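User: Show me an example of a complex going from sequences to structure tokens.

Assistant: Sure. Here are the input components:
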Amino acid sequence: MAKAKSNTLKLNFDTSWSYAPAPENKSAATIKKQYDLFINGDWVKPSGNKYFDTINPANEEKLSEVADANMADVDAAVKAARNAYEKIWKKMPAKERGKYIFRIARMIQEKARELAIIESLDGGKPIRESRDFDVPTAANHFFYYAGWADKLDYAFPNRLSEPLGVAGQIIPWNFPLLMAAWKIAPAIATGNTVVLKPAETTSLTALKLAEIIQESGLPEGVVNIVTGAGATGAAIVNHPDINKIAFTGSTEVGKIIQRAIAGTNKKATLELGGKAANIIFEDAPIDQAVEGVINGIFFNQGHVCCSGSWLYVQESVAKEVIRKLKDRIESLIVGDPLDKNTDIGAINSRQQLETIDKYLNIGKKEGAEMYQSSCSLPGKGFWCRPTLFTNVAQSNRIAQEEIFGPVLAILTFRTDDEVIEKANNSPYGLSAGVWTDKGSKIFNMTRRMRAGVVWANTFNKFDPSSPFGGYKESGFGREGGLHGLLPYLNLIN
Amino acid sequence: MEKTIKKSSLSISANGIEKKTSSKRLEVLKTYKIYIGGQFPRTESGRYYIVRNAAGTQLANVCLSSRKDFRDAVLAARGALSGWSGKAAFNRGQILYRMAEMLEGRKAQFIEELMQQDSTKAKAEKEVNLAIDRLIYYAGWCDKFQQLFSSVNPVATSHFNFSVPEPTGVVSIIAPQADSLLGLVSVIAPVIIGGNTCVVLASELKPLCAVTFAEVINSSDMPGGVINILTGKPGELASWFVDHMDVNATIYCESNSDIQKMMREKSAINVKRIVFYDKVKWNTNEGQSPYFIMDTQEIKTTWHPIENIAGSGAGY
């Protein structure tokens, strides 16, 4: 690698850039051998007595086994939630409700290290990300929404609000604890009760959160956590006594849910597939932009619904940007998620790795040029080298569909209008990014891009006070901020 | 007595009833056509249906719009979207106010049409007045609702972060059947003032005012294609209204649960936003609010870094 044919100086990472291992200590986390369902404030055995294994994707070793909830279990959870809603939660003074949620936020902070370790073990993400992003942001979400509980009368001009009832919530595997926080915190702050199902490959931190909720003394049944796969999710979606479905996941499943709840009074918030155009103009600070692009696509192994997987570079700087990107991915450290130096961890599951590999083949077959980091990969577990595709056409599938992995497709453009046309030419509209030093151009671009979250000269930033959610087929409803309240409320005149 | 009123008696006397006594002059009948892209074509299908009043008197032959008409209208609406949503909110407000002015000027014609379609004079007057006032109400919201529903978000990192509403896009609307003018105005106005464009199916049984309202729109500096009005049967067209891949949201104002279910199912095709206004009383204040505007808005959040001035040691 790094044998420069041109006169351009290139960094050689072969020799002097190895880091000593700096692994986080597994023993700081306790994982039980088996987890039951968290229903009505208690741990309940699944009625079908079935459990499934959850593994560490970095070495394929079994971590624990988790209960598989069937329809009867989901029904028990919904009954518990309904009971808690009618008898306790709805009647509780809002400020007391808020105090419980503050308490949960604090306890997440207290157990942050343990949660981060389990998140990285179960999901494969680098400990640096789970420690510095997932877990603190999850705690902050509870902290943020706790404060809203007794202030809802100020949220909607000239309207009062009332909770919906029981919310069924289904979350994905890419940010397991954080997504649980995104769903639970606003739901219970607004006075609803919850039945939540984590993704089957990453149930552990949600179950750990259930332990925290139990310890916090939150009234029984306000939050119920049932584990399982698609069938468990379907049981939640189809349960007649649920008032609200909140789902984060693929557009395909989101559409199934939209159809399934037709003819019912269930409200829905869907946070679906995304993938964003990340646009670099020639006047951008190129080094910062390259860093931003790297963070935009390789954050969490690219398992991010809003990741910047389609890079549009203005032609005049394309060569430079591509060279720098190639250099930069060479320096990314791929490996043990628990190592504090790791940049890119393990792919979440074998199935996801197969999807990514399928798209790598599609990309090559469609004529794009693939470039991968030369890093070595561990022998066991699920891994994918950081990958770039150049010479990508707008119609290529890798520039249209969600790969959900560490794969960047690079396209070029000449004019503002052209790149807006290209960037908006997608059924998705979750996020977008633009890099330029010119203020008026930033606002021109951010206004015209049809996406729910637009990052200018930054990327992949999240905050509890910042609304998140998509346009078009990326779903509807917002999570986070003031705008994240309405999906859990009815407004009354 | 009012049932004896015939069309084209353009002036209404104080007691509301003016009988045509002499017929030396043959009256000119109006052709009720549809409104697509700022033009008044007939339906491409060549089909029509007969509109009658409660007594069974034939009032007009009205276009029975087809799926193709709808598709043409969506094309017009999509084409008009960037121009319309790109206009200054202030300017959109002025155009809406202009619509109200035009409607005020043609009040008599609307009252008459409503009366032909079985309204009493008092009711018809009230409905037209309310429709005018509703346009004024929403004209005023054009450059204000954004301030109400936007936010600057105090994120914990060194970023400037704000959220603003933006139009959802092309909206298909099946207008209320009962309040044929007021209902129509009440569903169109909040959609378009937010920068959306729309295709509306007028009340099936009382479509006359809708077509005449298109003439008001057409003389109000409203760009062609922003509002497109079809006449026809919801039973035939509803599924196309919600099935189209280039429609972003659908509004339905009746309580037919079969159609509602069908709409929710079909909306999944492109994750369309579905809004039902089946319990709204349009002739009360409940029929107007900025929350109707927000039903066809998306929230966009923008982030930008802030240079860390304190970090470099500078201060105030």
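The lines above are the inputs; the final block is the predicted structure for all two components together. The domain at 277-456 of chain A is CATH 3.40.309.10 (Aldehyde Dehydrogenase; Chain A, domain 2).
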